[in-house]
Amino acid sequence: MSYTSQVNRSDGVVLAGTAPSLVARLRRIRRLKRWLLWPVLGLALLALLGGGLWYLQAAAIGPWGRAVQRFYSRITLQSFVPLLRADQRILILAPHPDDEILGAGGLISRQIAQGAQVQVVLVTNGDGYRYAITGHFLHLQVPPADYRRLAYRRQQETLAALGTLGLDSSSVIFLGYPDRGVARMWTDYWEVPYRSPFTRATASPYDNSYTPEAPFTGQALLHDLSEILDRFQPTQLYLPHPNDIHPDHWATYCFAMLALEMARLRGESWALAAHTLGYLVHRGELEWPRPRGYHPELSLYPPPAMAALGDGWAEYPLVREEVELKRRAILQYRSLLPTQRGFLLAFARRNELFIELAPLAAPRVTPGSIKVDGRAADWLGVAPLLRDPINDALTRTFTRGGDIQALYVALDDGRLAMRLAVDGGLLPGTRYQLRLFALRRDLDGQVRLERHWWGPVGGSTAAEMVINGRVVEWKASLEALGYPEVVILSWEARGPTPITERTAWATLVLPDMAVIAPPAD
């Protein structure tokens, strides 16, 4: 029987002249729709229950909306007034095109107006945002070439947005590293190049990257940032907040802080004096920023989970003209507006938020007082070095325990000790891993970088580690770490659920290590 004379039925519709293979595909699509119906309904119900309060707040504009904002912030914002002088050198480090405007667009415009030098560095070109490609290039199957075309378009949008604020294109640097790959370069691809799943490249394919054909490795990105910092010598450095949930964002913080601390260890005067501040862009659909949409009469407040930590958020008030200028700059990102308009415009408010990102100091305790035994008595009198937001993922609401609450750190007679407190107890089957970057100066003034990690499988064995009840404890000799003067570290927990819980990456200064350490080899 020929295909043209065959008649098939699907969903009560007569399909004349349809090939059997096409009919089979239509039937599979029908079955797929049925399977997808329940998950979609479940997600809709979850959004209704979890986001109902958010929608109420979105509708409550005016005095009531501001009252709701203040109720959930639970903190008093400090006033942040940076120096406005022509000798100031402001460097804004952004993971993707648009982050520089969302986090600091108002500050950029005012600093430029006051005559300060401003430079913006884009780590990636945002070339992995598929929704922008499917909407603009009208492809369902996106070839690597289209991701690269999107990158150039987002670059042009960035130049237009910053031009709206008065910044010349000569003050904008595109590094060209892989979108959604910065964290992998930090943790796994330090020397071996990472391959972008979007552009399929292992080195920058863009002709205007800061380093042509820069390999997608952690070493290459660290080199670029170190060189840019040394050349520009910023007095103020603005970075993504380490508790930003987007991997590109917290990893950008890590690379920048590593480059900055290496410059400080080398004794660079600009690095020792530089003021480092963080801005927040991503924290969850229901948490930040709220409400969505353009509401220039409202203020930004930190997300509740982060506000409860009392980290000392400071606001940078904007005048009406600056808010409007920021709105116009945001509207230059036309490739993002169809899917993210409400999110982007929610940052055009009466203020911007920043937080100081000063390195933390490890306290000393009585020698021999800390034992790796899971007992809290050893840590009496030691304050948490780092607090982690509780229930910092929506799905965490439906699991009992396993949420990292605080990290305690102490120096105990030539050993670095840590205690990880977990809210609700440890979940069975959870694996905990510590990643640590150690820095120290050699006798010739060069800075040595060593990477360490401890976990349930593999990693270094030169440490004690115990998991007991509600805590994870760890202790290693400074000798095993190479007698570091600075460490950048994070704990990560992977459990039986798909949830990955981690602490924010913290920069920790170890006092007097240069005196304790033996001469370098």
Would you write up a description of this structure?
The chain has 521 residues and is of the alpha/beta class. Helix content is 32%, strand content 23%. The chain contains 13 helices and 21 strands. The strands form four sheets. Strands 3-9-10-8-7-4-5-6 form an eight-stranded mixed sheet, with helices on both faces. A hairpin with a 5-residue loop joins strand 15 (431-441) and strand 16 (447-454). Mean pLDDT is 82; it is low at 1-27 and 46-60.
Notable traits:
single chain; 521 residues; alpha/beta; eight-stranded mixed sheet; six-stranded mixed sheet; 21 strands; 23% strand; globular
Task: Describe the structure concisely.
The protein has 521 residues and is an alpha/beta fold.
Helix-strand blueprint:
Elements: E1 7-10, E2 13-16, H1 20-59, H2 63-73, E3 78-79, E4 89-94, H3 99-113, E5 117-124, H4 130-136, H5 144-164, E6 172-177, H6 182-187, H7 218-232, E7 236-240, H8 247-265, H9 269-273, E8 275-279, H10 304-307, E9 314-317, H11 320-330, H12 337-345, E10 351-356, E11 360-361, E12 386-387, E13 403-411, E14 415-423, E15 431-441, E16 447-454, E17 464-468, E18 471-477, E19 486-494, E20 500-502, E21 506-509, H13 513-516
Parallel strand pairs: 3-9, 4-5, 4-7, 5-6, 7-8, 11-21
Antiparallel strand pairs: 1-2, 8-10, 9-10, 12-13, 13-14, 14-18, 15-16, 15-19, 17-18, 19-20, 19-21
Helix pairs in contact: 3-11, 5-11, 7-8
